[in-house]
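dude i think i finally got it to work??
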Amino acid sequence: MRLLGAILLSLAFAALGLTEAQRLRRRARLTSDFASGMELLRSEIGSRLAPMPEAAERLALYGPEGTRGFYTALCAGLENLGGAQFHELWERALELTDLPGPARRALSELGMSLGRYGAAEQASAITACELELRREAHRACEEARVMGRLRAGLAAGAGLILAIVLY
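look at this
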């Protein structure tokens, strides 16, 4: 019975490590999806001169999969403004994402620019945000690759050590 408990304890720690590694990979993929979504947002706002609600609706339906929830929440906020400004709705939708800090800051800064300036200025802000998101996506991929393995290995090792100590 003790052996079974030790095995289960080791497996639980290994599962925790794998979950953390998966979370890092998911964050990297989400950041990359937002970077890809910036291309679509720029084309929606720049070439068609579509207002933000229409662009958000299209991105909620056809944007990269990881960003659809963000744009859906933004659309819901736009439908029920309640006196809120666009950047506040953008921030609320951004709070629902699991983005790393630098990517979140870049998108937050973009939210302050959208709808306030002309199409050229908005396109420039979107381009700057996209570049920052691409840098962050690359960094997050590297972190997921290196730190994911490390965290999974450390958790599995800690589980084994604890199982040995308790056994």
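The chain has six helices and no strands.
im so relieved honestly
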